[in-house]
Amino acid sequence: MTRPILPGLATHRPPAGLAALLLAVVAAFQAALAAGAPWGEAAYGGAHRGVLPTRHRASSAVSALAYAALVLVTLGRGPGPTARHRILTAASGLMILGTAMNLASRSRVERLVWTPVAGTLAVTLLRVTRASRMVPSRTGS
To answer: How far apart are CA 70 and CA 78, in angstroms?
Structure first.
């Protein structure tokens, strides 16, 4: 028998799993940018060919850590239910904004690759957020 990703939410396992996978991909992409991968055209509006400038690499490093932390929150690890719900709600909203920004980008890679990734994350995180409200309280209230 396998253990559900989100205890008590076996029916919501696929959205959480998909969201966690996509978040891990974005975290790895951001970590690679921070480490100097020459993928500048696929990020930050495609304004920088090759390796990103130092300030964008620093921003990518912070983003990589934030996405990695969000993977854990999405999988039900970390903060309590109220904080988790708030974090997932905020992340859903930011992914909606990210979808619009990627769609409007001058970078073809952002429009073709990151728009659907951000859109899928917006939907899956919203589903995980809604499911997190159905988790019974540990205190019995």
So the answer is: 9
User: What residues have CB less than 8 Å from 128, skipping those under 6 apart?
Assistant: 6, 12, 15, 16, 19, 74, 88
Backbone angles phi, psi at 62, to 5 degrees: -65, -40
Question: Burial, 60: exposed, middle or buried (Cβ in 10 Å; 0-12, 13-18, 19+)?
Answer: buried
Separation CA 137–CA 71 (nearest Å): 22
Burial label, 84 (beta-carbon count in 10 A; 0-12, 13-18, 19+): buried
Q: pLDDT tens digits for 35-79?
A: 999 999 999 999 999 999 999 999 999 999 999 999 999 998 888
The predicted model scores a pTM of 0.83
Closest Cα partner for 128 from 80, 78, 86, 69? 86
- DSSP track, 42-85: GSGGG-S-SSPPHHHHHHHHHHHHHHHHHHHHHTT-SS-HHHHH
